[in-house]
Design goal:
The protein has 522 residues and is α/β, with parallel strands linked by helices. The protein is 28% helix and 26% strand. The protein has a nine-stranded mixed beta sheet, sandwiched between helices. Strands 18, 19, 21, 22 and 23 form a five-stranded antiparallel beta sheet that branches. Helix 1 runs parallel beside helix 8 (221-234) and helix 10 (266-276) packs across helix 11. The longest helix is centred in the N-terminal third of the chain and has 17 residues, at 53-69.
Length: 522
Amino acid sequence: MSIRPGGSAAIPPRLNLARHCLARSADANPGKVALIVVGDVTAGIERAQRWTYAELDRAVRRIAGGLLSAGFVSGDRLLLHLPNGSDYALLFLGAISAGLVPIPVSAQLTDGEAAFLLEDSGAAAIAHTGIGPPGHAGDKACVVLNETAITRLKDSPPLADHADTAAEAPAYMIYTSGTSSRPKGVVHAQRSVLGRIPMHRDWQGLGPGDVMLHAGAFNWSYTLGVGLLDPLAVGATAVLYNGPKDVRVWPKLIGMSGATLFAAVPSVYRQILKYCAPAPGDFPTVRHFLAAGEALGPALLAQWRSATSKELYEAFGMSECSTFVSNRPGMAIKPGSPGKPQTGRPISVIPLSGPAEPLPAGEVGLLAIHRSDPGLMLGYWRRPDEEASAFRGDWFAGGDLAAFDGDGYLWHHGRADDIMNAGGYRVSPLEVEAALMDCPGIAEVAVGEYRPRDDVSIIAAWVVRRDGGFLDADAVLAHARSRLAAYKQPRQIFFVDALPRGSNGKLLRRGLTALAVQRPDA
C-alpha cells in the first residue's frame, strides 16, 4: 500500500479522527446529547441508550485506555465482528482514539468469511461475542475480545486525551469486493474526517442543531460515516436503531426523536411507501431526506415527493472516498442523476485508457477522483497490483462508468468491472461464484445483477447442472446461505443449458440476462 505524499495545506499534520468528532463538543457543550441508540420503539425514546458529548468522549477514552493497557499498540488492527449494538460504535471510536485501526465487518458474515478477513488483515484482535472463527491471523494467534473482555474495556481508566496521531496515519479499514474473488481492505486515514466536510455542506446541510437518524447497521461504512461520524463532527445528535427489523419503525422513530434528517438506501424509501403509506405532514421535523448506496430511480423519487411533499436528495460515492457527488438544497434536481460534484471536490471523467485527461461533457469514461482529495483512501491493504491499476497518474478511478452533461450533472453508466450493487453493498460476482462452485450438482455457475423490475436490482445465479444430476433452486440457495453473508446471496436461480461465452471461452457476463426465464427453477 502506498501513502499519498504531501497532502493539502488545509490538513494539519497531527489529527485524531475520534478527537475531532468528540473533544471539541465535549469541551464546548458537554451536556448536549451526542448519541441515542434505540432498541425498543415501544419503550419510547426516554428508555433508549444515550450519551452526552462529555459521556461519549469519556466512554471512548475508557475503551482506548483499556486497549493500550492490554498491550495493543498504535497501528494494530482490531476486527469488529459484533451484533448491531452500541458496543460496535464505542469500540470503533475507541480503537481510533487509541491509534488502533478498527475493521468493521458485518455480523451476517459466515465463520469462513470472517476467518478470511481475520487472516488477510493480520488483525491483532477480534471483538466477537458469539461462537465464531478461531482467533488466528496468519502465522500468529490473535486475541479474542468476548463480552467479558469488552465490559472490562468499558470500565478501564480513560486516557487523558486521544492518541496523538498523524493526519496521514491509518484510522480504520473497510473491506469491499474487488476484481478478484476475495474482498479487499480499503484503508482510510485520520484526515478522512476532513474529507467529509463537503458532504455536510452540500448534501446533508448538516449543522449542530440537527438530529440525524440513519436506517443502516453499525458495520456499514454508510452508517458509520453519515449516521455517526458526520453528526458528531459538527456537534449534532446521532440516532441509530438496533431493534427488530420492521420498516414501520422508521416513521415512528422519526417522530419520537424529532429527526431533522433521515438517511437510508432507496429500497428503504420504497418499503416505507408500500407499508407505511406516508402522507404530506407526516414528517414535520424532517428538513429533507437523504439517499445513497444504490441508484435512486426517477419513479421512486417522484413517488416520494408526491406522498410526503418532502425532498429526497441522492448522493453517489464509493468505499474508497464515501460520497463526492450529490444533489442538494437550492439546486435543481434532474431525476436519474445523483447531482454534481460537491464543492471543492476534484472530480473528473477520464478515458478508459491512455492519458488521464478529463473528457468533455457528454463523453462516457471512468469516474475519477484526484489524489489530493482528503477523503480519498490511503490505499488497498496488501493489494499493490489492484491499487496500482486503480490510479492513472494523480487520478483514482474505481471502475464506475459515467459522463457529465453540459450543466455539470453526473450520469452513471454502470461498472467497467462488473462489480454488483446489492442493496448498497458492492459485491464481486467472482466471490459469489467461488462460494457456489462446490455445491453438489453444479457443473458451471455465473453470477450477475438481474432486474425483475426497472427499479429493482438483485443478485442472480445462472447454473448449469451436472449431467444426469438433480438440483433445484432451494439446494443452491441453501448452499449459498452456508457460505455467504445474506447480502451476498443470490435471490434468484436460473437453470440454463450453457453459459454465454465468447470465441475464446471467456464468460460473457452481460449476456446472462438474456437467459433469464420466468420459472427460475425450471
